[in-house]
Amino acid sequence: MLSRQARPIGLPGSALIDGRTYDLAVLCTGNKETTLGGLAPELFDPFVTHGVPVAQQHYELPVYRVGPHARLPFTAEERDDGLADMPSNAVSMWRTGPLTAALAASLPPVTAGPVT
């Protein structure tokens, strides 16, 4: 484990992270949001599957904001059930985890490319 933050660079169809190329990268920043150039919240729109927003999708890049950082609004059903009465429920794992799983299930599979 490195004691410093990785430096991701977006490339066409891949990501370069500390000198290694990956076809898929997941950024997990913990409980504090890390600002990355080109990934400001205003560059994202809701990603909806089966009528439910499950993530935020970047306008141009194959990048998604998930979990608490997606800042997903409560659904009408969640409001009716009283879940919106507690603001902390908006970022709870029991609420955002299944939404992240729904995003993952809706994305096309990653195809293996040549090993370099």
Q: Please summarize the sheet with the most strands.
A: 3 strands, antiparallel
Approximate strand percentage: 15-25%
- What's the arrangement of strands in the largest beta sheet? 1-2-3
Q: Report the average pLDDT across residues.
A: 81
Structure in words:
The chain is of the alpha+beta class and 116 residues long. Helices cover 16% and strands 22% of the residues. The chain is built from two helices and six strands. The chain has helices at 76-80, 93-106, and strands at residues 8-11, 14-17, 20-22, 44-49, 52-58, 64-65. Strand 2 and strand 3 (20-22) form a beta hairpin. The longest helix is centred in the last third of the chain and has 14 residues, at 93-106. The two termini are 23 Å apart.
Write the layout of secondary structure elements.
Layout: E1 8-11, E2 14-17, E3 20-22, E4 44-49, E5 52-58, E6 64-65, H1 76-80, H2 93-106
Spell out the key features of this protein.
3-stranded antiparallel sheet, 116 residues, single chain, alpha+beta
Quick overview of this protein structure:
With 116 residues, this protein is of the alpha+beta class. It has two helices and six strands, in the order E-E-E-E-E-E-H-H.
